[in-house]
Amino acid sequence: MTDERLARAGLSRLTEPGDLRVARAVAQVGAIQLYDDILAHRDRDQLVADAAGRMVRLDPAAELERAERSGIRFVIPGDAEWPTQLDDLAHGEPVSELGGVPVGLWARGPLELDRLADSVAVVGSRSSTTYGEQVARDIGAGVARADRCLVSGAAFGIDQAAHRGALALDGPSVAVLACGVDRPYPAGHRSLIEHMATVGAVVSELPPGCAPLRIRFLARNRLIVALTCGTVVVEAATRSGALNSAGWAESLSRPLMGVPGPVTSAQSQGVHQWIRSGAAALVTGVDDVLELVGSAGEHVRDVPRAPVQPRDRLARRHRQVLEAVPVRQPAGLASIAATAGIALVDAQTALTYLTEHDFVVQGPAGWRLGPRAQADLPA
């Protein structure tokens, strides 16, 4: 009798990540029954045909043993470490045919995956700009400062910048790969991925040794979104893979946030489209992000305001008269009253108040602005 872990390890080798046929069959008959049916070529014609070429190297028990010796664990539903937020994939509208709940996750690193419920994803263009990378680093650092985990895909561009931002503050960071966790990809980020395997975690649906294929990156995107409580897109062109992640955030009703870029930047056109349509909230930094992913009343931002100037506290009539007073050349009462458009007596009353509070200075020829009013004149 095959046990649950062996069956799921076998299914992860026999099938592609996120295959909806597999996820639905597991939900209907269970992983053990589905695994046995595929091996026995029973009632699963297309799945059997797709899996046939992989059966020759199928030995889940030996694979689990080798993985354990390499510091790799296989986490399945029911384990204390299983991130239950992934189960939402069974209820959201699939963005693609590779949108099912994972049969399990291969993981390397000390961070336990059940800690990712309040984590934040940052994704974006591989062809990033200096601006985009700086924003991603700052957000990654801010997420770490807030004691949350940063999740991304370890790709060139925005992904690596976000990871490095979090790691710079000794924050936990998780890389979700489209290949085996023992096969760092891209190869140029080997040291970065190995470091995350030491202080955070490296995660994949694919068994050790599997290669990164284009279709697997699209399946990987849904994991990044489903593992986290909100996704930030920093730079994404109109055909960027990061927009696939944005689609999953919308499907799973998770907060989707977009960082605006220059209106002339092709790398930000996709982000701008999502913001303009209302699908993504505009964020300009980590404070905006934390406000959107936090609990009600947590991380509430003050509305940015310009510094309050002394003249801002004046009554409307006093401001009206003050604006009619010349900066340097003094003017008489009649001239100031006419410019302000009020009666002489009202102008006189206002000028008396303004003189007493150093907004204007009175001389033999009339009134001019005092130092208190001149200090907040536009440059």
Rg, Å, rounded: 30 Å
Strand ordering within the main sheet: 1-2-6-5-4-3-7-8-9
* CATH topology description of the largest domain: Rossmann fold
Distance between the termini: 82 Å
Q: Which structural class matches the secondary elements? A: alpha/beta
Write the element-wise H/E pattern from the N-terminal end onward.
HHHHHEEEHEHEHEHEHEHEHHHHEEH
Number of helical segments with 4 or more residues: 16
The tally of domains stands at 3
Q: How many strand segments?
A: 11
- Poorly predicted tracts of residues: none
Please describe the biggest sheet, giving its number of strands, its sense, and whether it closes into a barrel: 9 strands, mixed
CATH architecture call of the largest domain: 3-Layer(aba) Sandwich
Tell me the quaternary state.
Answer: single chain
Taken as a percent bin, the fraction of beta residues is: 5-15%
Would you kindly provide a written description of the structure presented here, covering whatever features stand out?
By secondary structure, the protein is of the alpha/beta class. The chain has 3 domains: 1-65, no CATH class; 70-293, Rossmann fold (3-Layer(aba) Sandwich), CATH 3.40.50; 310-374, Winged helix-like DNA-binding domain superfamily/Winged helix DNA-binding domain (Arc Repressor Mutant, subunit A), CATH 1.10.10.10. Helix content is 41%, strand content 11%. The chain has helices spanning 4-14, 20-29, 31-39, 45-51, 60-69, 130-145, 158-168, 190-199, 214-227, 242-251, 269-277, 286-293, 316-322, 333-340, 344-356, 371-374; strands spanning 72-75, 105-108, 120-124, 150-152, 173-176, 201-204, 231-234, 256-259, 281-282, 360-363, 366-369. The strands form 2 sheets. A 9-stranded mixed beta sheet has the order 1-2-6-5-4-3-7-8-9, sandwiched between helices. It has a two-stranded antiparallel sheet with strand order 10-11. Helix 6 links the parallel strand 3 (120-124) and strand 4. The protein is elongated, with a radius of gyration of 30 Å.
